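Changelog note: in this version the structure field was regenerated for every chain. One regenerated record is shown below for reference.
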Amino acid sequence: MYELGFYLGGDGEIIIGEKRHKVQFGDIRFVPPGVFLCSTPAYHCYTVTFDFGESDTIYKNQVLDRIPTYFSTTGELRKNFEEVIRCIKTNEMTGKIRQGAILMELLASIFELFCLEKQYCDAVRHCIAYMEEHYGEPITLKTLSRISGYSEIHTLRLFRHDTGRTPHQWLTDIRIGRAREQLTLGDNTLEEIAARCGFSSDSHFKVLFKKAVGITPGTYRKSTVNQY
């Protein structure tokens, strides 16, 4: 059986094969049959298991073989996982029929997200790594210019060329992803979450969150609490 998981966050660790991973919101695991997997709580995740026929058959193709066993995202595939799980849980015939199609669509999305991603230049990769680690701090184009070693204008140009987005848009997505994690697992106030995730104010956080997710942070927290 293949095991596919989406982590909602926590303080646990995952060991896949011989590699150890610290759980963060948006992380995805894709574990083929026969690969060692163990975990240390606590964390929350969505898990889907599936196969492609007989239990002793290991399915091979150029898509599945290129998906890594563990990698990080900003959480954009959460809705896809939730849709698959809804189909698995339903007793309706239409849900059962759609289950396989949605699962394959999810695998295709993961492949596109990771395997078809452009190879970023060193300057852009360094900027992204810095934003991932320091998202709670003030980060300006001048900051990223020091990281990249280029002028602010050239850093912006490189980032747009490689990612199709501005550094500010990328950083906002990271901050929204981390805010989702804290809303799901913590008891911090919205003001505390906004400050910890690097937003300039509570009101600014609420506006950007609703724009990105479609609902307010408060509504999002209530919807995730109701799942457990």
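Spot check on this record: The longest helix spans residues 93-114. The chain has two domains: 2-114, 122-225.
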